[in-house]
C-alpha cells in the first residue's frame, strides 16, 4: 500500500512521486504535468500553480 | 486363492453419541475452497474463514458465494434402475443420482446473480434448517464441498395468480459423496449476516460513456450497482478518491502498475484516475489496460462495505 495524501480533493501517491523526484522530476516539470492533466482545473491558473507547488513540496518532504 | 470379504464388508450400525441428521438445506455455499481442520474446529473458526473467503474478489479462486435463502426443498431423486429376470429376481443396476430442487424468493437482481451460476461445476456446501454446516471430510484433515455435476437456476419470471412465485435451483449431486466421509459443524451465527456483496459495473465517463480506448494515462471512471443501476459516486466519492483503492494491469504484457493521483469530477460523477507515467510509457499501442477496484476485503478495511468493484478494460491508442 502506497503512502498517500489528499490536497484540495486530489489524492496523491507519495511513494510514486518521491521516486520520480529522486530520479530528477523537478517542481516545474511536476507542475506542468499536472496542469496538462487538469488536476486542479477548477481553480484559476495562479491558484493551480500555488497548490501544485504545495503538493510538490509536501511530497518531497514527506 | 480364496475370496473372502467378510472382514471388509459392512460395519457396526450402533447409535453413536454425536450423530446428527441431515435436515432441509437453508443455504448453499458455492465454492471450491477447501477448509482446513483448524478452520472446521468450531463455529467461531469457521465463521472467520467464511468471512475471509466471502470477501475475496470474483477473479480470485476460493471465493465463497452464498445462495439466497432456500424456502422449499424437493427431493427429485428417482428410483434406481432395476432389472427383473423371468423368475422374479430383481437387482439394482444403477443407483439414482441425488437430485434436488430448491425454491427461493429473491428479488430480480439477486435472482439474476444466482442464475448466473447455472453450469457451475464446482463444489457445494450446505447449511441446514438447524444451522448445521455440512461438508466432505478429506483424508488429510479439513473439508471440501460436495460435488455438483449439474447446477441450474431458472431465470426470474412473472408471478401468477395461483401461487407464490419462486425461483428454482436444480442440483444433481454425486451419490458416492453421501456414502462416507461427511462432516458437520453446528453454527452459532446466521451465515446471511456475514457478508453481503453486490457487484459494481465500472464505466468510462470520459467520452459520452463510450469506452474503451484511451490516448492518455488519465481515466474517468464511474460505477453503477449491477442490475439495480444506482450510481455509487455520491456515496463513495471521498472514500474511493484514493490511489490505494484501485488497481491497474497491462493485461497484454502481464504487468501491474500504480496510480500516481486520483481526483473527482462531480459533473461526470467520475473518479479521475491518473496511471503512473512510467507504467503508461511502457505500454505499447494496442495493449489492453485493465482497471479495477481492490478486493472487497481491502475495501472493507478502508470502511467501504457491501460492494465489489468490477473491471473495465481500455485499449491504449
Structure described in brief:
Helices cover 58% and strands 13% of the residues of chain A.
Describe this structure in words.
The complex is a heterodimer of chains A (62) and B (317). With 62 residues, chain A is an alpha+beta fold. Chain A contains 3 helices and 2 strands; from the N terminus they run E-E-H-H-H. In chain A, strand 1 and strand 2 form a beta hairpin. The longest helix of chain A is centred in the last third of the chain and has 17 residues. The two termini of chain A are 16 Å apart. The model of chain A has no long low-confidence stretch (mean pLDDT 93). With 317 residues, chain B is mostly beta strands. In chain B, strands 1, 2, 7, 8, 9, 10 and 13 form a 7-stranded antiparallel beta sheet that branches. In chain B, strands 19-20-16-14-22 form a 5-stranded mixed beta sheet. The longest helix of chain B is centred in the N-terminal third of the chain and has 12 residues. The mean pLDDT of chain B is 95. At the A-B interface, strand 2 and helix 1 of A face strand 19 of B.
Helical amount among residues of chain A, as a percent range? 55-70%
Low-confidence stretches of chain B: none
Q: Please count the beta strands of chain A (DSSP E, at least 2 residues each).
A: 2
Uncertain stretches of chain A: none
How many DSSP helices of chain A?
3
Strand content of chain A: 5-15%
- Order of the strands making up the biggest sheet of chain A: 1-2
User: What does the main sheet of chain B amount to?
Assistant: 7 strands, antiparallel
Shape of chain B: elongated
Q: What oligomerization state is this entry in? A: heterodimer
Question: What overall form of chain A do the CA principal axes indicate?
Answer: globular
Amino acid at each position: 500500500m502506497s503512502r498517500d495524501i489528499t490536497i484540495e480533493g486530489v489524492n496523491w501517491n507519495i511513494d510514486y512521486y518521491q521516486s520520480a523526484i529522486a530520479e530528477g522530476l523537478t517542481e516545474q516539470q511536476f507542475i506542468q504535468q499536472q496542469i496538462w492533466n487538469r488536476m486542479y482545473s477548477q481553480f484559476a491558473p495562479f491558484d493551480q500553480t500555488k497548490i501544485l507547488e504545495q503538493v510538490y513540496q509536501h511530497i518531497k518532504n514527506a | 486363492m480364496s475370496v473372502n470379504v467378510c472382514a471388509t464388508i459392512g460395519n457396526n450400525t450402533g447409535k453413536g453419541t454425536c450423530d446428527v441428521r441431515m435436515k432441509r438445506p437453508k443455504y448453499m455455499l458455492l465454492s471450491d475452497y477447501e477448509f482446513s481442520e483448524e478452520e472446521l474446529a468450531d463455529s467461531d473458526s469457521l465463521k472467520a474463514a467464511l468471512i475471509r473467503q466471502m470477501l475475496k474478489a470474483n477473479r480470485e479462486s476460493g471465493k465463497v458465494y452464498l445462495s439466497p435463502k432456500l424456502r422449499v426443498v424437493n427431493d427429485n431423486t428417482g428410483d434406481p434402475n432395476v432389472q427383473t429376470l423371468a423368475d422374479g429376481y430383481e437387482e439394482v443396476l444403477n443407483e439414482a443420482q441425488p437430485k434436488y430442487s430448491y425454491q427461493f424468493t429473491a428479488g430480480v437482481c439477486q435472482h439474476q446473480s444466482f442464475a448466473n451460476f447455472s453450469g457451475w461445476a464446482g463444489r457445494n456446501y450446505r447449511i441446514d434448517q438447524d444451522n448445521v454446516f455440512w461438508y466432505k471430510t478429506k483424508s488429510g484433515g479439513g473439508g471440501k464441498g460436495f460435488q455438483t455435476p449439474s447446477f441450474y437456476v431458472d431465470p426470474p419470471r412473472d408471478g401468477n395468480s395461483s401461487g407464490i412465485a419462486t425461483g428454482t435451483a436444480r442440483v444433481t449431486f454425486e451419490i458416492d459423496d453421501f456414502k462416507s466421509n461427511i462432516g458437520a459443524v453446528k453454527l452459532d451465527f446466521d451465515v446471511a449476516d456475514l457478508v453481503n456483496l453486490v457487484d459494481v459495473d465500472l464505466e468510462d465517463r470520459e467520452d459520452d460513456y463510450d469506452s474503451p480506448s484511451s490516448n492518455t494515462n488519465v481515466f474517468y471512471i464511474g460505477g453503477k450497482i449491477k442490475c439495480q443501476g444506482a450510481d455509487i459516486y455520491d456515496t463513495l466519492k471521498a472514500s474511493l478518491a484514493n490511489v490505494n483503492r484501485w488497481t491497474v494491469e497491462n493485461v497484454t504484457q502481464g504487468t501491474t502498475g500504480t496510480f500516481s493521483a486520483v481526483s473527482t469530477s462531480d459533473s461526470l460523477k467520475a473518479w479521475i484516475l491518473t496511471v503512473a507515467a512510467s507504467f503508461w510509457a511502457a505500454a505499447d499501442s494496442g495493449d489492453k489496460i485493465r482497471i479495477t477496484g481492490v478486493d472487497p476485503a481491502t475495501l472493507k478495511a478502508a470502511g467501504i462495505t457491501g460492494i465489489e468493484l468490477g473491471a473495465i478494460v481500455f485499449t491504449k491508442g
